[in-house]
Amino acid sequence: MQELEALFNPKSVAIVGASHHEGKIGHTVVKNIISSGYKGKIYPINPKGGEILGLKVYRSIEEVDNVDIALIVVPAHIAVEIIEDVAKKAKFAIVITSGFSEVGNIEGEKKLVENARKHGMRVLGPNVFGIYSAKAPINATFGPEKIRKGNIAVVSQSGALGIAMIGRVAEENIGLSAIVSIGNKADLTEVEILSYLFKDDLTKVIFLYIEGLENGREFLNIAKKKPKEKSIIVLKAGRSKAGARAVASHTGSLAGSDAIFDAAFRQAGILRAESLEDGLNWVTTIASSPPPKGKNVVIVTNGGGLGVIAADACEKYGLHLFNDMEVLRKTFQDVMPEFGSYKNPIDITGQAGGEEYRQALEKAFSEDSIHAILALYCERGDAELEEIRDAMAEVHKKYGNKPALYTIFGGEGATHIIQSLKKQGIPAFSDVEDAVSALYALYKVHEKKEEEKFEEVEMNEEKIRKIIEEAYKERRHRLLSHEAKEILLSAGLDVPPFYFVKSIEEAIDSANKIGYPVAMKVVSEGIIHKTDVGGVVLNIENEREVAEAYEAIMENCKRNVPKARIRGVEISKMLEKGVETIIGATTDISFGKVVMFGLGGIYVEVMKDVSFRVAPVPKKEIRRMIREIESYPLLEGVRGEKRKDIEGIVDSIYKVGMLVSKFEEISELDINPLIVYEKGVKVVDARMSIKVRK
Ligand code: COA
Predict the structure, then answer these.
(1) Exposure check for the chain: N or C terminus, fewer CB within 10 A?
(2) How much is the pLDDT for 246?
(3) Selection from 242, 132, 259, 131 nearest residue 183 by Cα
(4) Where does ligand 1 bind, in terms of residues with CB under 6 Å?
(5) In a 10 Å sphere around its CB, with 0-12 CB exposed, 13-18 middle and 19+ buried, how is residue 552 labelled?
């Protein structure tokens, strides 16, 4: 049996804090459980005894048999007091009660979970609105009473939004397999809930509302195990800066950087909706449509203008408009008026009535090389709408072999038709852009996911470890530039020759070995911005200049940063110009090690044109990551320039990903710049930090 089976399919339920007073949460919960047709045992618990809605009330949990779930609806301080007694009787507690970590009562929440876990009881919440599960069926929430059974599971961190969603879903006639509120996630998190839903036969699409993820890694690992036939759509709050602050104060959860969330979801093949509206449109379309068998989309319309808008939207979302004129002509010739157009969008013109529209749809459904249909209809102002609705519904149900999404544009009549189609489980929209966006989502969730492949990188691990240990010994958490470079070299990156020198003689000797021109930089943990203090000299052409540069660097640094400990000078080959890029790695509070890529200078500093991935990253994903930045064309070569060595960047990011994954201690690194040529890439400068050791 699955671990969470008893939570989603309980045989018995106790309500601790069941209330005699209508309108109170402890009363509504009992009422909803009864009216959902729950077949198991129900034990209302309240020290006052008596009866609630015809059920005998027990004065204490001790009086009842063991139960699968106990709903807790008493105030926070009582909840903490009684949780241990509950834990002796129940497998799961659903703690509806608020007043825990979300308002700073961290201690209370900790106690609640500790006392529950002492007896093996798991906790959902606290600060949740309950659970609905179609399997039982049970509506153990204090939200709306009526929930329709279906194949969409909603998992929501926000209670209020979850409740609103039940209402909305009911209005839209969307059926649910489950709705789970996870609130403060003090014990059970989306990770376990997802692993249950992946095995739940009733669930086809999972709609996840997340505010923050503390266990991003675990989440990604479970998301990657998603069965092929199920889809996840996520709506994460906190995209804008203001939104992010609201989240932080809302559930007290630690939201990581939004760009990293985006990247991580993409990497795990989870589609992220921008708005609740999009999210709902997407899940309902996915839940009610078969997967497309190919890329060919056909737009059938009675209005040219609407067709053009749809075609533009298809282009924006990267959907492929089928353009084989021969097939299109063959398919639609019988239904096309003389002045109609075979060019996709198929415009059967405003003259077409219900019958012509029906035939055009039938043709589109019957032609195998058409894989998805966007059916558009502009209200004509006569009484044809019902005919159109029947045509759409009947043809849709008769075939059902490919995705078909309907847009009806018009007034009140059109709205009625849309509602009526939705009621029948047919994806229908009033805005053509919504329909196209939903079709895009459908394609996206059915995209084939490639297997992640990692090949070993040969690294001189011993050397890397030695450098790190040396820094720890000296209680340094920022590595010196030559140490960072040494590590990168040992990890297989292309670092041109460099030396760490402590005297003019050594400097001259090294420069001669490297060959001119060379660059010299001060090495000191106390100096971060080396150029600003006169710690860098470039384009050194001969021995005399080496000596002068050495003296100048020493003098400048001693004068400008008298307190800094100057260790010496790094001397390296002066490199030819190329495209300057940055590769970085950092530790995200939610996802752990992540890597970053961008073009150097203004592209990263001003335009923040960077992309992220959770490390380690397979090479295919790195190629996508590089293409994602807006300045990508500069790497492909603009204005007659040749394409740069993009594979060289891929290889470098790959090695950085492997390095930071293998060496937990490396908390941050920056290769800035990595110069990219037509052939080859070179590490010019590097910074690296290691974690503080406790
Ligand atoms: N065992 C069982 N029942 C007990 C009890 C105990 N030890 N001690 C008291 N009760 C009873 C009370 O007598 C009362 O029943 P009654 O109405 O028949 O008298 C019932 O439990 C509820 O207690 P009460 O003190 O009236 O609390 P309340 O109903 O005003 O509030 C909560 C309780 C849980 C609803 C409230 O504390 C809360 O957290 N509200 C917010 C819920 C929320 O929004 N959650 C998040 C949603 S997303």
Answers:
(1) C
(2) 47
(3) 131
(4) 16-17, 19-21, 24-26, 45-48, 73-75, 78, 82, 96-99, 127-129, 159, 181
(5) middle
Q: Which two three-digit tokens encode residue 68?
A: 């699968």
Render pLDDT for 378-410 as a digit per residue (tens, 0 to 9). Answer: 988 766 888 899 999 999 999 999 999 999 998
**What's the average model confidence in pLDDT over 640-662?**
95
φ/ψ of residue 101, rounded to 5? -60, -25
Helix H or strand E encompassing 154:
strand 149-156
Q: 331 with 364: CB under 8 angstroms?
A: yes
Q: Whose CA is nearest to atom 10 of ligand 1?
A: 17
pLDDT in tens, 548-596: 999 999 999 999 999 999 999 999 999 999 999 999 998 888 889 999 9
Instruction: For the sheet with 568-573, list strands across it.
Output: 498-501, 568-573, 518-523, 536-540
Residues 6+ apart with CB under 8 A from 672: 582, 584, 600, 684, 685, 686, 687
Instruction: For residue 199, give both structure tokens.
Output: 């095995």
Q: Is the pLDDT of residue 602 over 50?
A: yes
The Cα 335–Cα 684 span in angstroms is 66
Answer CATH for 2-286 from 2.60.40.3080, 3.40.50.300, 3.90.180.10, 3.40.50.261: 3.40.50.261
Q: Work out which ligand 1 atom sits closest to the CA atom of 20.
A: 18
Average pLDDT value for the chain: 91
Atom of ligand 1 nearest to the CA of 183: 48
Q: Domain spanning 296-445 has what CATH number?
A: 3.40.50.261
**In the 8-state DSSP scheme, what is residue 378?**
E
Q: Which residues contact 49 (CB under 8 A, 6 or more apart)?
A: 57, 58, 59
Given this model, what pLDDT does residue 38 score?
A: 97
Name the CATH superfamily, with its identifier, for domain 497-574: ATP-grasp fold, A domain (3.30.1490.20)
